Amino acid sequence: MANQRLPVTPAIRLLRAAGVAFSDHPYAYEEHGGTAVSSRELGVDEHAVIKTLIMEDERRQPLIVLMHGDREVSTQKLARHLAVKSIVPCRPEVAHRHSGYLVGGTSPFATRRPMPVYLERSVLDLERIYINAGRRGYLVRIAPSVLVELLQPEVVDVAV
What we know:
Layout: H1 10-17, E1 23-26, H2 34-42, E2 49-57, E3 62-68, H3 75-82, E4 87-89, H4 92-99, E5 117-120, E6 129-135, E7 138-142, H5 145-151, E8 154-156
Parallel strand pairs: 2-6, 3-5, 5-8
Antiparallel strand pairs: 1-7, 2-3, 2-4, 6-7
């Protein structure tokens, strides 16, 4: 994949326009492989691979949760934090409609629809993170502070 031309996605355009320092990390994507595959293929700790999850509340209002690859989101904790009845992951086609990205390639940057972003607090403790760049099999390495600067997320403690 090293000789392959890297995609220019809406996320990459936004990072470039914002002057963000990042490095490209393409890998061999596997359907339903998740962050275990990307961390294995890139030789990085799965904890530093941040997944972008599109979820919705009971009113079907979408939101983004940024979580460590080796952790899950407590939707119950998040719902309590947001004072809503429930939070559930969106079906892939719904997530695609909200974000503009295919599941497995969802980036939090330059989504089709603006959505509130919730960032797991401990992500900010990492020196560098790997996050989807808007295409399956393509991550970028950035400083976690970029998430705060560009997305202005609400920081939460909802990992399990």
